[in-house]
Amino acid sequence: MAAGGLSRSERKAAERVRRLREEQQRERLRQVSRILRKAAAERSAEEGRLLAESEDLVTELQGRSRRREGLKRRQEEVCDDPEELRRKVRELAGAVRNAKYLVVYTGAGISTAASIPDYRGPNGVWTLLQKGRSVSAADLSEAEPTLTHMSIARLHEQKLVQHVVSQNCDGLHLRSGLPRTAISELHGNMYIEVCTACTPNREYVRVFDVTERTALHRHQTGRACHKCGAQLRDTIVHFGERGTLGQPLNWEAATQAASKADTILCLGSSLKDDWAALKLHGKCDDVMQLLMDELGLEIPPYSRWQDPIFSLATPLRAGEEGSHSRKSLCRSREEPPPGDRGSPLSSAPVLGGWFGRGCAKRTKRKKVL
Predict the structure, then answer these.
(1) Residues labelled as active-site residues
(2) 20 to 30 A from 163, CA-CA: which of 45, 142, 179, 251?
């Protein structure tokens, strides 16, 4: 036995005492939990004394219960009554007309109509993972801008929306025809890779998902800059990372828009902000259809032949055809683009949903919807 140490038998005895205490603590936790599930009037005097003696456990269990209920509420999809929804949309339309500087914030919920999963909905990525279920990867080459995306593009065209700030990286705002200067894609864009060795950074828009080989803190795509030869990287900002790229994140424009905004409209988010001036509970596409009808505006249909990504895209160079295995976008679904898999058709530049809970903090200048 080492000086000042314990003998083997003493260590075993100490371990038995530790395990006994842990089991007693677990049993006390189970007892307190059973009592808390009873109505206060149904608890015996002895059970009341046990709760009084177990204040820390009671606090811990009540905190767990609140967190479970909060998570459950976040996953609930609650729809307003149709008449109530129409009334709210009329109020929303008035706010859109009267806004001097309207900024739209969009979350994953605006893309579920394009078969892109959200995060916290009943079938969201995080929800399924928390339930121990697998999450299948969606074929994003089949995704197209939704009615909501096209409505936002038209509202910007009509100068009713000044800027769009999105946490989505699916590229659907860009593909809806919304100008690059009017979008801040804070989490990046899956169709864009950049060379950070060039000054300014050189951007390559592709017609396929460039994130095939990338992950958290690992952003090289396997292709090289056509000018300097440096490794290209994706633009995605993962959880735990800080986005520093100028484009497509466009943080400067997002910050300026937030400072100028007198009205903010949040769409497709599970945010639960009690300070919101107006909350609409309904599918984004349904709400936007009602809104555009109320404003007397037509929603332009999406056309792959007019998708801006094809005129913006940089073709792969010879030898790069095998640098990815993701399916490429095509102008026509029936007809693949000519040439290599990554090359878009050359042409002259031509030109859903989920729960749209409007939530953000209200300040003196800003109306949040």
Answers:
(1) 187
(2) 142
